[in-house]
Design a protein that fits this description.
single chain, 362 residues, mainly alpha, globular
């Protein structure tokens, strides 16, 4: 092997590395666009059954069916915004007139009541927490600053929302748009199998995301009933936030439990801890546990068995592994990604024993 061949090999390797680096840099720069496309793809999968129903059952034209579906999504989004905007506006006005010292005193008073109550009942409470004065070190004046940052981000959110809706419309109108883009890179002898895989993936993920919406709706209804029963302020908003957090497997319910506990206690800020705050919060958290039991033993098994055709233990391991590797985002996309991979493996590598075992239910 002469020096010219070696030099050409080195130059080719460097060229390949530079090309990969440029592609990665390009992806990094357009990551927001990739996120828009991913969100639009999820929404289009959710809306796909609605479009098919309107076309097949009600004999709608494809474009009309897509427009009606988009209007349903926009109506739902508008309803959610209408639910949150008055609350945000009210809280913004309250924060602009907020007496920071009074708020800090109220929180400090609640803290003192909690410590006194548990000491009275002979429950061990770390004396260092009481003496540290940790609440006095919290700068409550930062609250309005965070609100200002939230408002400043609405512009970027508006651009993202328009982009997602625009892309979703064309994904629904031409369901093969994304598929055709991928097919340009697929060899001719693999086109039939690839198209079959795409159709299977779309069907499974449509059922999965539809089931996920049903799961959130069930939790939302249960949470709302519980919070309204015990007179918690802003019950509907709290219920929606806690139900929505459930899309994050395992971690979401923990975050929502803390959120519901905190908001339930703060809803009665200034009242007696032992007579009002503790009983109400206890009942609310019992209701939360019941809702989670319903979700874990009925909703989730139904979604996994009927939509993605995977065993709960299999799903658990996939979510844990992707969570370790990619964090919260990995946990959210774990099930859809794993389902797509199983479909592709079954179509192209079905002769292997492991693949046959994993894809038995597909």
């Amino acid at each position: 092997m002469n020096s010219k061949i070696i030099a050409n090999g080195i130059l080719r390797a460097v060229g390949i590395l530079l090309a990969i680096a440029l592609v990665l840099f390009f992806i990094y720069k357009i990551q927001s666009v990739i996120v828009y496309i991913a969100v639009a793809a999820v929404i289009s999968l959710i809306g796909r059954p609605i479009v098919l129903f309107l076309r097949r059952k009600l004999k709608f034209n494809n474009t009309i069916a897509v427009i009606v579906t988009m209007l349903l999504f926009i109506g739902l989004l508008t309803s959610l915004v209408g639910l949150f905007i008055p609350l945000i506006a009210e809280q913004g006005q309250n924060l602009s007139l907020l007496n920071i010292e009074e708020l800090q005193n109220n929180v400090q008073d609640l803290y003192n009541q909690v410590v006194t109550y548990f000491q009275f009942n002979n429950i061990d409470v770390e004396e260092s927490i009481k003496d540290s004065g940790v609440l006095s070190k919290i700068d409550f004046s930062l609250i309005p600053d965070y609100l200002n940052k939230l408002v400043s981000g609405l512009g970027s959110f508006s651009i993202g929302l328009f982009s997602v809706l625009f892309i979703t419309f064309f994904f629904l109108k031409d369901s093969k748009l994304f598929e055709d883009g991928i097919m340009t890179f697929v060899p001719n002898d693999k086109e039939i199998r690839t198209k079959k895989s795409f159709n299977t993936i779309k069907d499974l993920l449509s059922r999965y995301f539809g089931g996920l919406l049903l799961q959130i709706l069930i939790l939302f209804i249960i949470y709302t009933i519980i919070l309204l029963t015990f007179g918690i302020n802003n019950a509907v908003v709290i219920a929606f936030l806690c139900a929505l957090l459930n899309i994050i497997p395992y971690v979401g319910p923990l975050i929502s439990s803390f959120l519901m506990l905190l908001l339930s206690m703060s809803s009665n800020l200034g009242q007696s801890f032992s007579e009002v705050i503790l009983p109400k919060t206890t009942y609310v958290m019992i209701g939360f546990i019941i809702a989670q039991l319903v979700d874990n033993f009925f909703s989730q098994p139904y979604i996994f068995s009927k939509s993605v055709k995977s065993h709960p233990l299999e799903i658990f391991l996939v979510i844990i592994i992707t969570g370790i590797l990619f964090g919260i985002v990995g946990m959210i996309i774990a099930v859809p990604t794993y389902t797509a991979m199983k479909v592709i493996l079954k179509e192209f590598l079905s002769e292997y024993k492991l693949v046959k075992k994993l894809t038995k239910g597909l």
